[in-house]
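Lab meeting prep.
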Amino acid sequence: MKISNVLSVAVLMAAMFVGTTSFAQDKMMKEETKMVGGAAMYPSKNIVENAVNSKDHTTLVAAVKAAGLVETLASEGPFTVFAPVNAAFDKLPEGTVETLLMEENKAQLQGVLTYHVVAGKVNASDLVKMIKKDGGKHTMKTVQGGTLTAMLDGAQVKVMDASGNAATVTIADVNQSNGVIHVIDTVLLPSTK
C-alpha cells in the first residue's frame, strides 16, 4: 500500500472518530439533565457514574465505595435511591460516619446504605399518587429489608425511617439509566432491632 493511501485511510479514520465523538457529545448535550451538587446528571449514565460528579454527595460516594456497593449500584437495576447530601451526614452524631466507614463495620454500613434504596423505579409523581391512594402515607420495602414511609408535607415529599426521623426530598426525579435518584436532606436509619 502506498504511503499516500495509508495517510488517506488514517485521515478517514480520524474523521470518523471525531464525528463519533461529536455525535456522542451532541447526544449528551440534548439529554434532559438536572443539576445536583454543581454537576449535570445525565439520564444515559448510571447512578454511580452521575453521583461521583456531585459535590453534595462526596460522603455518600465514599460510603458506597467503602461498603463495596459500587458494582451493585452500577448494575442494571432499576433502583430508586434516596440520596442524602453531605450536610445530612454532618447532622449525625459526631464520629458516626467515621465509625461506619471502618472495615469492621462494613456490614452495618451496607445496611444503612441499602436502607436508602428501593427496588424498581419510582418517580415522584407516582410516589405522590401512591401516598394519596394509601390515605396519606405509603410504605416502601427497602433493599435492606426494612421499610420507609413516604408522606406529603404540603407539596413536599417526606420519607420517614423506622425511628420516625423524616427526610425531605429536595431534588426529585434525577433520572439515571438504571433508575432514579431523589436527593434528601437527612440520613435515614434502619431499625436496630
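Slide two material, second protein:
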Amino acid sequence: MALGAPASAGPGEPPNPYAGPDGTAGMHGDSAASDTTAWAGPGAEARPGWPVTLPAVCPTILAGRDGMVQALCTEYADRAPSLYLIDPHTWLPVARRHLKAGDLLGGVYAYIDHRDRLVTVDGSGSIRWLDHERTALGWRITVDQEQPVDLPEGDAVTTLGPGYDGHIWFATSQGRAGYAVAGGETRFVTLGDGSEKVANSIATSTRGTAVTSDHATYLLRSTATGVDVVWRRAYDRGPARKPGQLSWGSGSTPTFFGPRSGSDYVAITDNARPRERLLVYRADDGREVCRLPILGPESSGTENSPVAWGRSVYLASTYGYPYPAQATEHADPADPEKADFVGGMTRIDVSPDGCRTRWTNDTASAAVPRLSREENVLYTVKRSAGGWRWQLARIDPETGRELSLTHLGLGPLADTLQMVGTILPDGTLLQGNIAGLRVVRPRG
C-alpha cells in the first residue's frame, strides 16, 4: 500500500460527546485507547526537538478545543502531580496548579472533557475538574468542580475516563471499578475475588467500559442501580513481573478497535512465558477471536498499550527497559531482575478466523507509538547508543521500515520512559521525557 493511504481500513468509534477532541483529549488519544490520530505529524523534514524544561516528568500531554496544551506531570520535589498550562505559540508554561500527592502514578491518567477541563484524581481521593482562564493578570488554573469518590479505606482511584453514558468511569489500585455520577453518588464492583489490582488505564466505547486487572479483562456497563459485569476473561499472568514492566500482569490498556464499528474487538497482551501473546476478544460477548505470541523470547514483553485501527494491531516491546528505580519500588520483584533492552515492534492483522503477524522490526521503541491515520505513519521514539541518543522515528505501518529519524535529545535527561507523544492539529508533536517535554514542529 502506498504511503499516504490509510494504514488500516475501517471506521473509528463515534466521537465521545463527553470528551475533548479525539487524538488529544486522553493519554491514548481517544476514549477507545486506539493510540491513533486523524492529524498528520511533523513529517520527515521536522525540526529537531525543542526542550520545554520542567522540574517534573510529563507522561500526560493533552490539548482541548481551545488549543492550550495541558501537561499533567509528576514533580520531583514531592512526587505530586502538577498541571502545567503551556502556550502553544511560545511553548512557555503560563500557569501551574499543584495537586495533592498520592500513589507514585496517581494523577497520571486524566482526560480533557467536552468543556476543555482536565478531569483527574489526586491524593485527596476526589475527582477534580480543572479549568483555565485568562485574566487581566494572566492565565490561571482553577478547580471548577470537586467530587469525592467513596471507596473503602486504603483504596484509591488509579485511572479514570469518560463513558459514553455520561458517567466518569474509574478503576482502583485494589481492584474495584465503577463510575461516578457527576454531582452524585459513586457505584462500583469488586473485580474477581478481591485479590486483583488495576495498574493501567481503562477504555470506553459505545459498548461499555473495558478494564484489565493483573488477572483478567472485563467489560462493564452501567445500569439504573449499579455496574453490570458483561463478561470476564482471565489471562496467563506468568510466574512474575518481567523486567521492563511496572506491574505483574498485563501491561496493556485494553483497546477497542475493529473494521465495522470501531469497537468490534478488545485487544490486550498477557504476561505469558517464554513469549507474551496478543489476545483479541469480541467486545459484545468476550469470545476469544485469537491469541498469538509476539516478538522473540529476548524481547517478548510490553508495558505499552496496543495501537489498533481497523483490523491491525501494532505492539512495541519494553522488555528490559531500564526504568528509574522509583518507578518500580512498590512493584512485585522482577524475574529476571534485569535484562537487556533490545526493543522491536510488530504488526498483527486480525480476521474472524484468527491473527497473523504482518511484520516485525528491530526498532528500539522508547515511547508508546502513535499512528497518524492522515499521514499513514507510526511515530515513536528510538533509543540508541546505550540510551545516549533519542530520535523521533517515523515507521511505515505497512512494512515496519524506518522512514526517517529526527533528533530529540542526548543523555539521560532526554529519556522518554516509554511515554506517549501527542500530535496537535498543526502537526506539532509533543513528547514527554524525564525533564519535561520536547516540541517537534514541521519545517516551514
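Talking points for slide two:
Residues 36-440 form a domain with the Methylamine Dehydrogenase; Chain H fold (CATH 2.130.10.10).
Confidence is low (pLDDT under 50) at residues 1-8.
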